[in-house]
Every structure is written in C-alpha cells, then in structure tokens.
Design a protein that fits this description.
The chain has 448 residues and is of the alpha/beta class. The protein has helices at 16-27, 32-36, 79-91, 119-124, 140-146, 174-184, 196-200, 205-225, 230-235, 247-267, 294-308, 328-343, 358-380, 384-390, 392-403, 443-447, and strands spanning 38-39, 45-46, 69-74, 96-100, 131-136, 155-162, 188-194, 237-243, 277-282, 313-315, 325-326, 425-427. The chain is built from 16 helices and twelve strands. Strand 9, helix 11 (294-308) and strand 10 (313-315) form a beta-alpha-beta unit.
Length: 448
C-alpha cells in the first residue's frame, strides 16, 4: 500500500464527547477518574488526554544555539585520583566541571577538599576550550584559594555557587563575599537558588520550586544591599534543580522554573529579563543500592527530561554512588549518557519541544502556580531563613515524604535479583550530610 495515496480524511473527525463515549465503552463500568486520571505528589491531576495548546510560550535555554553544558562532578575524596579524573573527563566529552565540596549538601558522602595539593594548579592548566567551572558548597575563602583557575583562558564561565541558605553561618559573610566577587566581573553566576536539597529529602516538585523561588528572592534582597541592580542580581543567580525518572514532571518542573523566574523578574521591575541559567543534577533519591545498573536507565530518562525541559547545564550522579566513590567506568557511563543524547540523538537541536503540548503545558502551569502559593506562604512567614530556622521547612518536607505512595522500584521491589552482582567502586564514602535542616533520603531506603 502506498501511504502517500491515502485520503487524509480516511480516519474521519472526532471530538472530546465522541472520545469519551469510546472510553466509557472500553472501561466497562470502571470509574473514569480512578482508572485514567493520576495525580502528582502535589495532588495535580494528570488527565489521559489534552488538546494541543495553540499558543505556547517558548521557554528556552540561555544560549539556544548551543547544546547544554555536559558537566562532570569532581568529588573524589582522594585528591590524586580526583586530578586524574579531571583530565579524563575533559579529554572525553565533558565541557563543564563541578567541584563538589565534601561539606556540600549535594556531596552525598563524596566531595573534595579545597586545600588538596595541586588542585588549583590542575584547574589552571586545563586545556579544554570554553570550559565551565562550577563550585558547589565551598566557602568563599576556599573559592579564593582556587580562584586562580578562573584566570585560565580556557575557563569561559564560572559559577561560584554562593548560597546564604544552604548551611549554618553562610549568611553571615554572604553580602561581603557577593560584593567582592561581583566587583571582579566574572562571566557566569555568583549565587545559587537551590531546590535540590528539598527534592532529595523527599519533597514534592512544587516544594522544590518554591524553595528555589524563596532562595532566589532572598538572595536578590541581599544582593540589593551590596548595590547590585535587579537586572545584575538576576543575571548573577543560577537556578538549581534535581531531575529524576519521572519524565513529564521533570520536563514541566524545568519549564516551571523559568516561568517563576520571569514572574520574580517582573515583580522586580525587569520586564524583559534574559532566560535564567538553569543547572540540573540527576536525582540522588531515585538511586538504588540493589541492582544499581538500573540507575543507568533512570539517569538516562532524567537527562533526557532535563535537556528537553531546557536546562543550560546538566550533571549526572554515577549509577554506583550508593555503594561508594564511583570508579572510572561508572563516571564514563555518567558522562556518555549526556554525550550520546547530544551528539547522537541531537536533543539540543529543538528549542523547547514541549511548547504547545497540552499535557506538559498544563502541568507546567499547575506546578508553577502551586509552587508560587507555597513560596508566598514562605514569604508570609518571614522568608526562607526563618522557615528553615523554625523547622517548618523540615516539617513540610517530612509530611510530603510520609504521604508519598510507595511505587514499585525495578530491581528493588520489582524483578529483584536473587543474587546481587558485585559492584566495583574506587573507595568508601564519607558521612552523608544535609542542608537547610534536611537530610537526603533515597526512595529505596523507605520501601526496603
């Protein structure tokens, strides 16, 4: 049969009412809502069918003519091994390096010491062109110790990662540090508006976005104190979120972050603010200890979703992180997950492919609105710092974690292996710390 010769009208036209009649017949008396409508952890309904949105808003990366930055973590507790990994990553596809401090809330038992011998020299000598360098969880004095690396011509963009809310005592020196770094005129960002700790502690998507928004606004106030205009303060902020295996919610969450950023910018009197820099890291809470190879699939879906959702920079947690310091193979798989999706699947070639898709557009809007309500409540209670100090943030996240309906986890509660294969790691992990009064809790720890 010649497909081109088929009459386009052969399938006829239908409408929503006709579709519902067919569904009713197929359900054979089962309840439509219970059978076909699901809900997110925030209670947002996911309908089985949506109409295409005729006028969609394009939510793009900062540079939609370039692929997102393929960032690789530099977080090995052994400094000599970390330096070897740095060279391997840059020689094999990484375009960004995230230096993760062992005191970071996102270290998960790994992390490096800023005083490690040879670290600054190694960063200063990196040959990679257009390298992006990110600091995660470092105090300003530690960044100063490594700042010579940013004078390397190869380091095109630097994200300093200052965060007044992530750790106790961070706010005390924030304004002076931010002013000093702003005066140096870095290409990149100075502060993080970070929601990852909420996600990894068990919070919902809207809660993660709300804390990101509260952090953004809190930092804008602090940056205003040191003389940064709203435009400059917005440009100096990096939004940080987690990406997990829930494909559509992750896509919508990334897009919702941009809507929230634009709404905050408008409230600051910046009507035409450029897109925010959006950093996504794959979820720690979704990683399993049993059958850890299944984490490779979870990471792939997470990267796909973050890339399609418009992340400017993505970092993948290696699949074996739950067992120890990832070995070279695990790091290679983490790196190649992104490389294949960009170089072979060309996911970066379409700007905001979800624009106009009824289901994702509806979920994006609903997440943004739900997050804004939570954010407004945080602001009404005095801002993020007070909500953290009072324990209300921890209580809110704990409630969400306890209410979450446990779902089957492949390799852990579903199709579990009778005998686990040995896992090769480079070394043991240190203690896992949290931030904002929250501790990371993996989903498999809750159900196993």
């Amino acid at each position: 049969m010649n497909i081109d010769s088929l009459d386009p009208g052969i399938f006829g036209q239908s409408d929503h009412k006709a579709w519902l009649k067919l569904v009713e017949r197929a359900l054979k008396g089962k309840d439509f809502q219970e059978t076909l409508v699901s809900q997110t952890d925030d209670g947002i309904a996911i309908e089985p069918l949506y109409e295409r949105r005729q006028v969609g808003i394009r939510l793009s990366r900062q540079r939609d003519d370039l692929p997102w930055t393929l960032t690789q973590r530099m977080d090995d507790l052994d400094p000599s091994r970390a330096l070897l990994q740095l060279g391997d990553d840059l020689a094999n596809g990484a375009s960004g390096i995230s230096l993760v401090s062992k005191t970071s809330a996102s270290a998960f038992g790994a992390g490096i010491d800023a005083q490690a011998p040879g670290l600054a020299d190694a960063l200063a000598a990196t040959p990679q062109e257009a390298l992006t360098l990110r600091f995660d969880g470092f105090a300003s004095r530690s960044i100063d110790a490594l700042i010579a690396s940013t004078e390397n011509p190869a380091v095109e963009t630097t994200h300093l990662g200052l965060d007044a809310f992530s750790q106790d005592g961070a706010a005390a020196t924030f304004t002076n540090d931010a002013k000093r770094f702003a005066e140096r005129g870095f290409a990149g960002t100075i502060v993080n508006a970070d929601g990852r700790v909420v996600h990894n502690a068990g919070g919902t998507e809207a809660q993660e976005l709300a804390v990101m928004a509260a952090s953004l606004v809190g930092h804008l106030r602090l940056l205003e104190e040191v003389g940064l205009a709203p435009e400059a303060a917005l440009a100096a902020t990096s939004l940080c979120l987690s990406a997990d295996q829930n494909q559509f919610t992750t896509i919508a969450k990334m897009r919702a972050a941009r809507l929230i950023f634009a709404r905050v910018a408008l409230a600051c009197g910046v009507a035409d603010s450029p897109p925010a820099h959006l950093f996504a890291e794959t979820s720690y809470r979704m990683l399993t200890r049993l059958d850890p190879e299944t984490n490779i699939l979870r990471n792939t879906i997470a990267v796909f979703s973050a890339g399609v959702g418009g992340a400017d920079e993505i970092c993948v947690l290696p699949h074996s992180l739950t067992h120890g310091i990832p070995d070279p193979l695990a790091r290679r798989l983490a790196r190649n997950t992104q490389t294949i999706l960009v170089a072979e699947s060309h996911l970066d070639h379409v700007v905001d492919p979800a624009s106009g898709a009824g289901g994702i557009e509806a979920l994006t809007d609903a997440l943004a609105e739900r997050a804004w309500d939570i954010f407004a409540d945080i602001e009404g209670k005095g801002g993020l710092a007070r909500v953290i100090a009072s324990g209300e943030l921890a209580a809110m996240v704990a409630e969400a974690r306890e209410k979450r309906v446990a779902k089957p986890i492949v390799g852990t509660t579903l199709f579990a292996m009778k005998t686990e294969r040995p896992v090769t790691v480079s070394g043991p992990l240190g203690p896992v710390d949290g931030g904002m009064g929250l501790m990371p809790v993996r989903l498999d720890e809750v159900v196993s």
